[in-house]
Task: structure prediction
Amino acid sequence: MTKNVINFAHANGFPTGSYQTLFNYLPDNTQVIALDKYGHDPKKPVNHNWQAQVDELIAYVDSQQVDGNKVICLGHSFGGVISFIACCQRSDLFKGLIMLDPPVLSGVGALAARLLKKTKWIDKFSPAGRAKNRRSQWPLGTDISATFAERKLFKPFDSRCLGDYITYGICERNNQLELV
Result:
């Protein structure tokens, strides 16, 4: 049986491992490849059009020996957008695209976003901007699961998915718990 290779690109603020429960539901003939974190390479800083992260995705897929098979791109939110752009720029690498909840705007919404990007107000409305101000450290011994379970974003999460986020998104560093 031929293996389908899926390149997964995560949403802003969610390391790839936090999707492990989702990956467990994929068919056995599926191989998931994924760069753990986008936007963390100082040589490829995040900008307004995410081209550096598109380049990261393309370089990563190019570096994976997938036996000449074209890859299916699966991206969540930010990851969906960079996957879309990568597929447009390098169609020779990809045979399909699945976008989960991409932040794609059109019409008046796109115009408003374009105008907001020219101001500091964009950070008040974008997930990336809100992420800059989120809490990222907790004292050792904090019940992180209970803390996150109360947050609006995480309330609808399946407990396994929240567990994945904590396992892959939190580490102990400098005598405290920190976001990775």
Remarks:
- The first strand starts at residue 4 and ends at 9.
- The CA atoms of residues 19 and 164 lie 7 Å apart.
